[in-house]
Amino acid sequence: MPPPPSTRPAPRVRIHPLGDTALLAELGTRLDTALNTRAIALAAALKKRRDVRQAVAGYTGVTVHFDPDQTTPDVLGAAIKRLAAKRPPMAEPGRLHRIPVVYEGPDLEDVAERLKLSPPRIVELHSMPIYRVFLVGFVPGWAYLGPLPEELELPRRHVPRTQVPAGSVAIAGRQTGIYPLPTPGGWHLIGRTSVKLFLPDSDPPCLFRAGDRVKFFAAKS
Amino acid sequence: MDRFAHSAANLVVGNPEADATLECTLTGPHLVAEHACLVAIAGADLDPRVNGQAAPIWTGIFLGQGDRLTFGGRRSGGRAYIAVAGGIEADRWLGSASTNLLAARGGLHGRNLRAGDQISTSREATGPAVSGHHLIERLRPQYFDHTLYAIAGPHVRRLDAQGRGLLFGATFKVSREADRMGYRLDGPRLATSGEELLSFGLTAGAVQVPHGGQPILLMADHQTAGGYPVVATVVSASMPVAAQLIPGDELHFQEVTLERARQMRLALAAALDTLR
Fold it and tell me: Please, which residues 75-134 of chain A have a Cβ atom closer than 8 Å to chain B?
């Protein structure tokens, strides 16, 4: 018997110009694994087009950089809508990365206090889920992981740090991530890892790819 | 940063436009020609001199062995581009010869050039070394006009009517926080409303408004993703002008249609075509 037709409606796509050589195609606005899977599939399909220079999947949409000598925003926009209406191929489970974390971050005590949880409970909650890589970007090697357990949800630090050490494991909102390079940052630092996320001599130069899965485990310092 | 000047400098000396050039910000280097070569300087006017004699920009210049190319000081613009016939030999990373200082890759060992470095061409110059080939004055970018033409961004509705009026009416100033990643702009604060956005891919030219309302114009080395509202995007034809701005320069944004942006882009492409 054939499988029943999908009852999930194709998401409505909103297309916005980003200047005259890029478009932002939004599939939705919620933090949602299914939307993200569609965004990653749409970006992969768009990258195969000759008129597309680069397609970057975000949480819930795709930023499409195009060659304005080969297409127009209208033509490409119509093509994006057609591609987005197609049922995405069955998402393959991304690679699973197990990342050792020394949970001794400078903000661990403060986070525990603000959430009214003990530091060991923070560690337990943070290392429990298998997170999804929703998006790779920002700085080389950075990946947005989530969703973080609701119990750990905190707004960003009011005043960002001007320098966060590379390897810092951090949380903010419903997200978690690892600082790949020493950069400024506004997330709460709860631990550190020795795993290198930015691999400048590999292609792609990042350990994580959109759609991968990540599991943290507590390690001794 | 200024792709037009970079391309023009290459085309003037007979290179493919994607060859590596030297980008000189605010000040120029002192270069000594170890072999005879054809060079061109485009973009900012940093008062180039050959053996002390004023030399033209946007124009092929022949340097004999031992000739010195120096720069007297900035007269206008922020970034000059030096091309050498035969192309400049550079490390390539992720398909580009550009230097990425953060990753320490590309260009010359991923770092800024310093005194004593030797720069070589990547191949024998193919064409005859003809000096004097130049981009005619009329076709050079109007760098002194700091109007940045822009298309309304995906989140422009997060500005109220007054905010939108300020974005496309007020004068902004490039702050001291300005580099190849982007320029923070001083001027009126732009208040945005609405929930936090989930991060999405960004582009050069995007004008993003973080908390606090001080807009940031993203430039060539911008972060690849971010979650602040993008209220406008400067069109590709205005990016050479944006690339020549320096801290303290005033600018304003003018909204244009995609059709007008296309005409402006084609005009720049036609100007480069006169050099082929």
Answer: none
> A21 to chain B: which residues are within 8 Å by CB?
203, 236
Q: A69 to chain B: which residues are within 8 Å by CB?
A: 269
Interchain proximity B224–A173, CB inside 8 Å? no
Contact B258 A68 (CB under 8 A): no
Q: Which of residues 152-191 of B touch A (CB under 8 A)?
A: 153-154
Query: With a cut of 0.90, is the ipTM above it?
Result: yes
Convert chain B into a string of H (helix), E (strand) and C (coil).
CCHHHHHHHHHHCCCCCCCCCEEEECCCCCEECCCCEEEEEEEEECCEEECCEECCCCEEEEECCCCEEEECCCCEEEEEEEEECCCECCECECCECCCECCCCECEECCECCCCCCCCCECCCCCCCCCCCCECCHHHCCCCCCCEEEEEECCCHHHECHHHHHHHCCCCEEEEEEECCCEEEEECCCCCECCCCCCCEECCCCEEECCCCCCCEEECCCCCCEECCCEEEEECHHHHHHHHCCCCCCEEEEEECCHHHHHHHHHHHHHHHHCCC
| pLDDT tens digits along B100-128 | 988 889 999 999 999 999 999 988 766 66
Per-residue pLDDT reduced to its tens digit, A145-182: 999 999 999 988 877 788 899 999 999 989 999 999 98
Q: Tell me whether A200 touches chain B (CB under 8 Å).
A: yes
* Domains of chain A with CATH codes: 14-85 (3.30.1360.40), 96-218 (2.40.100.10)
Q: Which domains does chain B have, with CATH numbers?
A: 3-139 (no CATH), 147-273 (2.40.100.10)
